[in-house]
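Reopening this one. Same input as before:
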Amino acid sequence: MLLDCLIPRSLSPETENEGVTLLHNLLMQLHLDRKVARGLGWRGFLPSNKGNFSWSTRLANSDLVYGIVFMGEEHDDQAIASSFDLYAFPVGDELKTQMPESMQGLYKKDNHIQKIRTLSEHFQELQDFKIGSMGLVFRLDKKGLNLSFHTHKRDARFIGREMRPARALMPLFSALIQSFKTSLNTTPALGVLKSGNLPSVNDFFIEAEFGLPVFEDDEEMDAVYKLSAPPLSYIPDEVDLSDKPLIHVLCGFLGSGKTTFLQNWLNFLHTRERFTGVLQNEFGEIDLDTALIGDETCVEALNDGCICCSLADSLRPGILRLIQNTPADQLILETTGLANPDNVVHSLEELNDICKIGLVVSVADAPNLTEHPEYLNEKLRLAQLTRADVIVVSKADLVCDESIERLTQSLHDLNSKALIILSANGDANFAVLDHFFNHWIDKKYGMFTSRKHTPGADTMLLNNAGFSMRGNTSLFETCAVKFSEPLELERIEPIIRNSGKKVLRAKGIVDIVGKGCCEVQYTDGMLSISQARDDLQACDRWLTIIGKGLRPQTGSTTIRKSRCL
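Same output, byte for byte:
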């Protein structure tokens, strides 16, 4: 039967919510196949079932958040008819100005986003945003389905063409038609009712019929303008059609909090069934950060020095292994704190046969940069910030509001195109990051800061080709100190400080007397020690130290010197 792929059982009209089941199963199918969903223009769905069942959703080709609210269901011995109200909430400031002041008042309330997300609870107080209705009628034998959409061509409350109800809602209806077409694997009969068949010349009515006619003796489809495709359908771009994963580049200076931020970002993505592979680059021999991510994520550890200097040797096979081992359609490359994103992006472009570049996300250490604003002028940190599409201001909870405001303004002055978000304990508003990413992919791909060509980046390619490039490289050293027995707490910091003339970073897993297995982090003179997770108990006890002018200590590995371009 036509509808078996969405409801693989006999219909139960007595429940009076089979239309909800049908629509919800369609959206969940798409949610679990993100490539298909993206190709159809869907950019996320959120169901809500407190009160009337509803969904809120975003689409690639619209600056509106759409709401679908189930209003009821009827049936006879032939078919089930479900009705839904349709809502449209402007997101962009320009569209908001096209609404009357009474509607703009919603956006002045702090909880307006939550009300939209839980539309099933608040649809009655948001009636001003209801601008259409939808009918879903399907045969009891599951051999036919009729999807219809009714609204007005114009609404005197709205200024501007984009907020005319028929135009505003058409992307949503087109996405639903195309989604049913894909799921049911059949092309619908599609048409718009003529003016003479409508109650008012201002009415707009369009319908799509799949399979056998729902209304056996109905002649409505004879009184329509036939259409070959729904208006304002989304046209997939090269990113939607590509079978290559997107790779986001996560950078930030040593100790800025990249791994903690990454852990929370992965939690956000995975709870939405958007499983993501990770490539981690350690500037040293011990891949502690790979262990810290945990065992729920497929992680490739790259330990051949800074990847911006050894990309060809380690990154390509690492990506290929991840593609083979995980179905993820996106990967996150966490670079060493010494990586220059200019070089990473420049080199990733040479891997376009196996992947596409996503966002460049740079983590900026708030306490560090507010205490030392001069760090913003350092060459490497400046490159990480000016090349970023997104700047994450980490550890914002450790800095006063006034200092955060000054820092974000300074970052904006450095990179006016970047999205700047605040992070506390590695957590951030990932929904904002997600929206930014979707907007960037749909409307600005290839136009962002990370895509600019920097002639200086060619030095890495010349260097790897065997040419000697001077004046553009920095020499960093790394070593690992191994501990065979527990240490007194007060010994940790002296060991780190006495490791060299300039210690930039230290991290590791150490047994501490009275505390047991602990995670040690040292950044820019600040030491933090926390209880290690249970799954880290099996890790070797090491401290990896990065800096300049390092000195060998008892139990340390050979000091490695590596250049970072």
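So the earlier flakiness isn't reproducible anymore. For the record, The two ends are 62 Å apart (CA to CA).
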